[in-house]
Amino acid sequence: MHKLVARRNYSWGLVLSTQALISPDLHSPDFPHYQFLGFWAIHLLVVWAAIYLTWGRRMRPQWRSYRFVVVVTVVWAAVTFAFNTIAGTNYGFLNGKPATATLLDVLGPWPVYLLTETTLLLIVWALMTWPWERTRRHAKEGPQVV
After folding, report:
1. Distance (Å, rounded) from C-alpha 91 to C-alpha 102?
2. Cβ contact 39:24 at 8 Å
3. Got the DSSP string for 87-146?
4. Cβ(49)–Cβ(10) under 8 Å?
5. Nearest 10 degrees: CA dihedral of 8, 126, 104, 32?
6. pLDDT band per the 50, 70, 90 thresholds, residue 6
7. Residues contacting residue 135 through CB under 8 Å, at least 6 positions apart
8. 107 and 117 Cβ atoms separated by less than 8 Å
9. Coil, strand or helix at 66
10. How far apart are CA 93 and CA 25, in angstroms?
11. Which of 1, 43, 100, 122 suits 107 as a labelling partner, its CA being 20 to 30 A distant?
């Protein structure tokens, strides 16, 4: 089970947490407030865990994990969108863009940016999985004699 979690963390952690680090939407107090420290600690640890599990522990992503990540992300987004609508929140910026400038600004207005972001995620996650699958497949086949 832990390998399955590690393989999913690769997609979510490297892409989504990195995006949060590049353009954070911080409405919390500045350093050294616990909310400021918590935001940075959580996102940095997720990225570190994705790198450590993939390269340090050799838990490589596979197409099976890619498909699982896509399905779970779609379900998560639908549930989160509904919760945001009921609760008046905007977790994941599914119900609107943040007030501050982020990378989402270049993806179009709401809801267009959701479709653009989804397409980009599918492509990026596939490109992140493909080299590991290719390497695994070549290792299984053994050296090619020419």
Report:
1. 15
2. yes
3. HT--GGG-SS--SS--GGGGG-STTHHHHHHHHHHHHHHHHHHHHHHHHHHHHHH-PPP-
4. no
5. 30
6. low
7. 60
8. yes
9. helix
10. 10
11. 43
Tell me the pLDDT tens digit for each residue of 71-88.
Answer: 999 999 999 999 999 999
Residue 58 CA from chain centroid, whole number: 19
pLDDT in tens, 29-73: 788 888 888 888 998 998 998 889 888 888 888 999 899 999 999
Q: Which helix (H) or strand (E) holds 50?
A: helix 34-51
Q: Which of 139, 125, 145, 117 is nearest to 61 (CA)?
A: 125
Show the tokens assigned to 146: 């020419």
**Cα gap 125→16, rounded to integer Å:** 11
Extract the tokens encoding 75. 């379900």
